[in-house]
Design goal:
CATH architecture of the largest domain: 2-Layer Sandwich
CATH superfamily of the largest domain: Histidine kinase-like ATPase, C-terminal domain
Distance between the termini: 104 Å
Largest sheet: 8 strands, mixed
Number of helices: 14
Structural class: alpha+beta
Oligomer: single chain
Order of helices and strands: HHHEEHHEEEEHEEHHHHHEEEEEHEEEHH
Number of domains: 4
Helix content: 25-40%
Radius of gyration: 30 Å
CATH topology of the largest domain: Heat Shock Protein 90
CATH class of the largest domain: Alpha Beta
Strand content: 15-25%
Number of strands: 16
Shape: globular
């Protein structure tokens, strides 16, 4: 019997090869939100809509987004997303749609929906993987420029774009982009559907006009309720408190400054001459040392010295919160309640990264009163529809004591009653639990601010509920009294020998007195 030859070190070495990022995510597509056909449809729409909204806002254009879903077969759909944004320069189109980890937002410290340079190219990769079809892009950068139509595929082995077609066409839009993908997917209704995503996107982006057509041909338009664009977020430099050791070493090595003091001042936010000298003194590093000649042990000393020096918090103009008025406008348009409140917290900082929490509550009206409250979660204006149980926002809601605000709440559960809870976290770098960007990590600083905002709104809700109960009790008492006023009139007529006309006048006077007491 022949003995099987064992692999040698050379054999093992020959089997090894570099894995491109595209190859990795092709085999691990669940990490990007493509782990089921129904979720894949939502993820593809979300990535395209996020890009459209970001592009419009950065160009100062009020967004007009059109989303169309066409059923080609039971498990195959065509997704089309069109916007009126600034368009994309022709040479950039292949890289944006055909290369993973390519984008303009990863290195910028400012609030934006996309951050990783994965989203839309990953959607195209999934479409190519499941149907073999490339992504079709039509784009135009201005009325004087010719529209271009390109078909782009991804070479997964090289993580490089492959342009299959490129031509000039006729297109009636003056500027904008239209993206079409054919992918394996399933369309379903419910809380995790594209339908729900569109509702929640319209709620958090009241400045956008959104047209949506379902695969069944149903059309709905979410008109904008404000003509004001969100406050423009400004890019900031990294804050020393948020930089890790390896990043600090790389920044010093790549710095163009001549001295380490100048590098600290020019490459970081909130580092003045005094702050920089204090850090270097604590670390024992001469301020005139070249940043490229700082030894590894000295970088570590510098890293340990930073937390010991008091540094002003980073600027917060890198954030663009929705705003209380806009939250109320969006909720009143789409949530059928009879009472609303919103609160935008002052900016805070975690690990040197600015963030801001916003909360809105809608109560009563046509909302379901028998079930649990509904929580709507957002990060940088993007709805989070999956992984609610593992999200820090959900934990903050669960650990808030709603009984103190007049609601029923079982231990470890959401409050009961006709309530919708809207929570938005805006940040330059949202700490998602995975690349699919569906849940927020349980950072104590974030959870604390969410709870504080919930408590502020909860106190106003409590006052509203108490006032409602008091008014209901008074109404019940007035109704009870009004019911017996005719009998009081009959008794007075008999006791005082009143005429029927006088008796009616007395009853009318008593009724008026009761009505005046209601208005007091």
């Amino acid at each position: 019997m022949a003995v099987k030859r064992r692999a040698s070190a050379a054999d093992l070495a020959n089997r090894q090869r570099e894995i491109s990022i595209s190859e990795f995510f092709t085999k691990n597509r669940h990490l990007l939100g493509f782990d089921s056909p129904s979720k894949a449809l939502l993820t593809a729409v979300k990535e395209a809509v996020d890009n459209s909204l970001d592009a419009c806002e950065e160009a100062g254009i009020l967004p007009e987004i059109k989303v169309e879903l066409d059923a080609l077969a039971e498990d195959r759909y065509m997704v089309t997303v069109e916007d009126n944004g600034p368009g994309i320069i022709r040479k950039q189109v292949p890289k944006i749609f055909g290369k993973l980890l390519y984008g303009s937002k990863f290195h910028r410290l400012k609030q934006s929906r996309g951050q990783q340079g994965i989203g839309i190219s990953a959607a195209g990769m999934y479409a190519q993987l499941t149907t073999g079809k490339p992504v079709l892009i039509i784009t135009r950068t201005g009325a004087s420029r010719e529209p271009h139509q390109l078909e782009v595929a991804i070479d997964t082995k090289r993580n490089a774009p492959s342009v299959l077609k490129d031509k000039e066409i006729e297109w009636d839009k003056k500027h904008g982009t239209r993206v079409t993908m054919e992918l394996e997917a399933v369309y379903r209704k419910g809380q995790h559907s594209v339908d729900e995503y569109m509702v929640q996107t319209a709620m958090a982006n009241p400045h956008a006009r959104i047209e949506y057509r379902t695969p069944k041909g149903d059309e709905v338009t979410y008109e904008r309720s404000t003509e004001e664009l969100p406050v423009e977020a400004r890019e900031i430099k990294p804050h020393p408190y948020g930089v890790e050791l390896g990043i600090l070493a790389r920044m010093l090595r790549d710095s163009k400054s001549r001295t380490v003091l100048a590098a600290l001042k020019s490459d970081f936010s909130r580092v003045s001459d005094n702050v920089g000298r204090s850090i270097l003194k604590e670390a024992g590093i001469p301020e005139k040392r070249s940043p490229r000649h700082v030894a590894s042990r000295e970088v570590e000393s510098l890293f340990r010295a930073i937390p010991k020096v008091k540094i002003m918090a980073p600027p917060t103009n890198c954030l663009s919160p929705i705003g209380e008025d806009a939250i109320l406008s969006g909720m009143k348009k789409l949530v059928p309640a009879d009472w609303y409140v919103a609160r935008t917290r002052p900016p805070s900082v975690y690990r040197g990264n600015p963030f801001q929490v916003e909360v809105g509550l809608a109560y009563g009206g046509a909302l379901e009163s028998d079930g649990l409250a509904r929580v709507i979660r957002y990060a940088n204006r993007v709805p989070l529809l999956y992984q609610a149980g593992g999200c820090g926002i959900t934990k903050a809601v669960l650990t808030t004591s709603w009984r103190g605000y007049g609601l029923q709440q079982a231990r470890g559960a959401l409050p009961s009653g006709p309530l919708v809870i809207f929570v938005h976290i805006a940040s330059v770098w949202v700490p998602f639990t995975s690349e699919s960007k569906e849940a927020i990590a349980h950072y104590p600083e974030l959870l604390k601010d969410v709870r504080l905002a919930l408590q502020e709104c909860g106190r106003k809700l409590s006052a509203h509920i108490r006032r409602g109960k008091r008014e209901a009790d008074e109404h019940r008492k007035r109704t009870y009294i009004a019911k017996y006023l005719p009998y009081v009139g009959d008794a007075l007529q008999e006791i005082l020998s009143l005429s029927p006309k006088k008796r009616d006048q007395v009853v009318e006077q008593l009724t008026n007195m009761l009505e005046r007491s209601r208005k007091m």
